[in-house]
Amino acid sequence: MYEFLKYEVRDAMTADPIAIGPDTRLREVEELFESHDFNGVPVVDDRRHLLGILTKFDLLKAFSLDAHALVPHYDTIMEQPAAAVMTRDPVSVEPRLPLSRLLQKLVEMRTKSLPVVENDRLVGIIAREDVLKALRRATIQHEIPIHEDSPS
Amino acid sequence: MTTLLYTHPACLEHDTGFGHPECPARLTAILNTLRTAPFAALEWRDVPQATVEQLTRIHPQGYVERIFARVPRRGNVALDGDTILSPQSGEAALRAAGAVCAAVDAIVQREASNAFCAIRPPGHHAEPTQAMGFCLFANAAIGAAHARAVHGLERVAVIDFDVHHGNGTQAALEHDPGYLYISTHQAYIYPGTGRRDERGIGNVVNIPLLAGSGSTDLRHVWRHEIEPALRDFQPRLILISAGFDAHHMDPLAELNFSEDDYAWLTQQILAVAAECCEGRVVSVLEGGYSLPALAASVAAHVKALMEAPRAAQRSLIKGILERQKTRRNAAGS
Predict the structure, then answer these.
(1) Do B128 and B171 meet the contact criterion of CB atoms below 8 Å apart?
(2) What average pLDDT does this structure show over B133-156?
(3) Of A98, B233, B246, B312, whose CB neighbour count within 10 A is largest?
């Protein structure tokens, strides 16, 4: 576990992640969720400045009951641009943040992933799975039982 | 004294298209329940079409003509994303509004103490010049206006417990002190109106409830808001916009009323009616989109109507005796 304390976000994140523009239709976002195992996708402008994050939760929220129609209309909602439903000004982390701190943040926020931003640009995304993988990697030697190493 | 049931086959032929929640099966579920033994005492009545005169007390004639001009020869026409017309929709809408007027006539003339109108399309979202939210004509408001215009009732109250705010009824009645409109509804959902500060000319009481509200909240607002407002107003007739989509099983909202709550609320309304207006209550179907919950809730509501407080019955009998006496005196003189 001591090894884990040396890790930083950049050691575990997915670098240069898939991102979408603010005009991407929700229909395309849904297809992205369908074909990749994403829970959310960062929304960036053409210089990769982070504008927001659009998660499955935001997509669900677009279908919740509101004042616009008695029954939410699938096609109308799916034609909306990402900018209409994304979470703006999302919490982001820096690549040099200790991974242990990032873990703390994920737990406190009950969120599944956070965008990683450096010099105002999106450089990565870090998810629960990445942290779990790093935990395993950091502790792997100790998980190998000693007796299997010995020939007797 | 029995309860009258107003319905018409045309209301089953208003076809909103495949999968639409405001479907003919709603009415079929209700009528099948009301045909069972516990409801044998209901007096079923056919209904006339509403007249142009009845409709135009609320809707401008141009609006009525526009609606009929949109009714398709076949297939469906969408007035908006929610509000769909089929070839029989015009006829159904006329019977729906006609049912409320006929029920008002019968109740004011003491043919029974109360009535339930099992009709569709519903009406409380229809504004004087705007069809919306499954609604074409403002059935309850049309009935209220009919009671005032034809029977000269000074004060008519409409209580709307559908889970959605009755923007149409409110728009139709809020400028006339002869009406009181009271609505409980879920806050922040369709149609977005019904805030507490919408008070008309002091004759509108909007009670938005937060998602998750149920029996306790209903009893609280009845005691502290609905009942005092009703008693202050002293209505000569009470109309109920009876939507059952505040039920905990309804798919279009998040309030948690039960069948028992609908029975309880109906009994409370009847008790006030017994004191203020000889028990005169006309209830009009609005929403309710879980078929089993709708059928069970209507059953509880109608059962309560059929068991109207004895006070109302006593006053009815008194009325009948008085009329006989008057007639005898007239014959004698």
Answers:
(1) yes
(2) 98
(3) B246
Record: contact B133-A67, CB cut-off 8 A: no
Which residues of B are known catalytic residues? 125
The ipTM of this complex is: 0.74
- Cβ of A76 and B252 within 8 Å? no
User: How many residue pairs from chains A and B have C-beta atoms closer than 8 A?
Assistant: 32
Total tally of structural domains belonging to chain A: 1
Q: Give the closest of A66, A67, A69 to B81, CB-based.
A: A69
Instruction: Report chain B residues whose CB lies below 8 A from the CB of A67.
Output: 188-192
Q: Do B81 and A71 touch (CB under 8 A)?
A: yes
Residue A150: inside a domain, yes or no? no
> What are the E-state strand segments in chain B?
3-6, 43-45, 77-78, 84-85, 114-117, 156-160, 179-186, 204-209, 237-242, 281-285
State pLDDT tens for residues B273-288. 999 999 999 999 999 9
Could you identify the residue written with the tokens 């576990």? A1
Mean pLDDT rounded to a whole number for chain A: 91
A69 contacts B82? CB cut-off 8 A? yes
B105 φ/ψ sector (left φ>0, alpha ψ -120 to 50, else beta): alpha
Listed residue (B15, B163, B172, B167) closest to B89, CA to CA: B15
Q: Is B31 on the interface with A (CB under 8 A)?
A: no
Q: Going from the N-terminus, what domains does chain B have, and what CATH number goes with each? A: 3-332 (3.40.800.20)
Domain range spanning residue A83? 2-143
Tokens of residue B156, six digits = 């008519």
